[in-house]
């Protein structure tokens, strides 16, 4: 019975914790206090449910309990009497016994609904006052429902480091009195970019782990997908929110084919496309169409999603529209000026026009400071040299790439390619 209760509590917490913290943060205007009150409700569930039984609407029970704890806190704290008066006018808070609406239908026009609370929370967690590392940790904690231990394990860093980042982040937001709101006007676009960046960073760490012995970290990919879908629903008028959702869905569709039975990485050209997830591809294409239907120029995520769509729609690597991919990368490079984008364009050019044309692009990138420690620069160059029959030079490039990576699976793949070049 105890195990069943713990599983029930853990399950509903992962699903509903973000909504509960968001609703509390709107009430108390303090993310740290909101999380503390939500945790109080979690403890109450662990104490009450084994005795009284698991409620039919678990999320509503947690929300009601958390809001009652917030009201109790205000009543006890005389210094917050003014806030209590304000909350006394809040019909939702006063009617704590009413079952909250946990419908998945999110109406962008509601001014104080669940959707707006979550949107406020994600924009606050990704505030520019915080470092990128702090934004990632706080976002995963508040919106992903991950524990400090889970975040530390996912990024292979000490739990104390993660805990410290989260504590400092909440303190920074409190000291700066950052308003719990969605920014308006130009500030919205500026902050949206930071939010999308954090979600995609989480996804990328799951898609290809920076270090360790795993090629991918599926739990992080899943959390990023969940956050991306949530953001697209919460901001339906923002094409880049749909673009990011599309990009992640399409890339995640390849996950099952990205490793072999032995766990070793399988590169895109060698993947069994019958193992690609057709449901994720359909979801990705739908999100991309939504982004394009808004009628605005494509941003970085929508352009990358369009590139991923070219791969998803091609029966094989050879039948891929590489010329279109190269042109999409050129458009992406025009708005990002990123040497990594130019490197990716070179790969597409190599498939559309041949390795010699691509090698000229790659050689021009060797002086780029941003790519000096980027393992995929020598890796791509090694591949081009191998295709041109310059096998010894290719071997040296693959060895150089292997020395730059901290991921064990990636290193093994690059060393294997170096050995293959040496045998030719």
TrEMBL record:
Domain RNA polymerase sigma factor 70 region 4 type: 122-173
Gene3D superfamilies in alphabetical order: 1.10.1740.10, Winged helix-like DNA-binding domain superfamily/Winged helix DNA-binding domain
SUPFAM superfamilies per the UniProt record, alphabetical: Sigma2 domain of RNA polymerase sigma factors, Sigma3 and sigma4 domains of RNA polymerase sigma factors
Residues of the DUF6596 domain: 191-291
Domain RNA polymerase sigma-70 region: 19-78
Official protein name in the record: RNA polymerase sigma factor
Species of the source: Noviherbaspirillum aridicola
């Amino acid at each position: 019975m105890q195990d069943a209760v713990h599983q029930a509590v853990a399950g509903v917490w992962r699903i509903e914790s973000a909504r509960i913290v968001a609703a509390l943060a709107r009430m108390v205007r303090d993310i740290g206090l909101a999380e503390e009150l939500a945790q109080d409700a979690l403890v109450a569930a662990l104490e009450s449910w084994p005795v009284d039984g698991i409620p039919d609407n678990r999320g509503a029970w947690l929300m009601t309990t958390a809001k009652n704890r917030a009201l109790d806190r205000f009543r006890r704290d005389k210094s917050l009497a003014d806030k209590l008066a304000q909350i006394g006018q809040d019909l939702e808070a006063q009617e704590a016994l009413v079952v909250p609406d946990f419908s998945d239908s999110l109406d962008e026009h509601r001014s104080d609904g669940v959707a707006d609370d979550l949107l406020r929370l994600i924009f606050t967690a990704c505030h520019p006052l915080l470092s990128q590392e702090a934004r990632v940790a706080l976002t995963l904690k508040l919106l992903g429902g991950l524990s400090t231990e889970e975040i530390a394990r996912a990024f292979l860093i000490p739990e104390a480091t993660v805990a410290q980042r989260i504590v400092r982040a909440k303190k920074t937001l409190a000291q700066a009195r950052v308003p719990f709101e969605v920014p308006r006007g130009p500030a919205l676009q500026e902050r949206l970019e930071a939010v999308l960046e954090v979600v995609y960073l989480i996804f990328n760490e799951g898609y290809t782990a920076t270090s360790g012995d795993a090629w991918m970290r599926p739990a992080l990919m899943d959390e990023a997908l969940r956050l991306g879908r949530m953001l697209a629903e919460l901001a339906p008028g923002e094409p880049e929110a749909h673009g990011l959702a599309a990009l992640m869905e399409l890339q995640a569709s390849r996950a099952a084919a990205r490793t072999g039975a032995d766990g070793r990485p399988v590169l895109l050209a060698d993947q069994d496309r019958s193992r690609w997830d057709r449901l994720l591809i359909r979801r990705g294409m739908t999100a991309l169409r939504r982004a394009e239907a808004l009628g605005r120029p494509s941003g970085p995520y929508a352009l990358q999603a369009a590139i991923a769509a070219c791969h998803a729609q091609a029966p094989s690597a050879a039948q891929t529209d590489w010329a279109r991919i190269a042109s999409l990368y050129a458009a992406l490079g025009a708005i990002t000026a990123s040497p990594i984008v130019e490197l990716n364009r070179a790969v597409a050019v190599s498939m559309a026009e041949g390795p010699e044309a691509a090698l000229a692009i790659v050689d021009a990138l060797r002086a780029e400071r941003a790519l000096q420690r980027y393992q995929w620069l020598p890796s791509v160059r090694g591949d081009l040299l191998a295709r041109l029959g310059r096998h010894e030079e290719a071997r040296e490039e693959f060895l150089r790439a292997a020395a730059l990576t901290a991921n064990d699976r990636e290193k093994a793949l690059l060393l294997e390619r170096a050995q293959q070049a040496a045998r030719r």
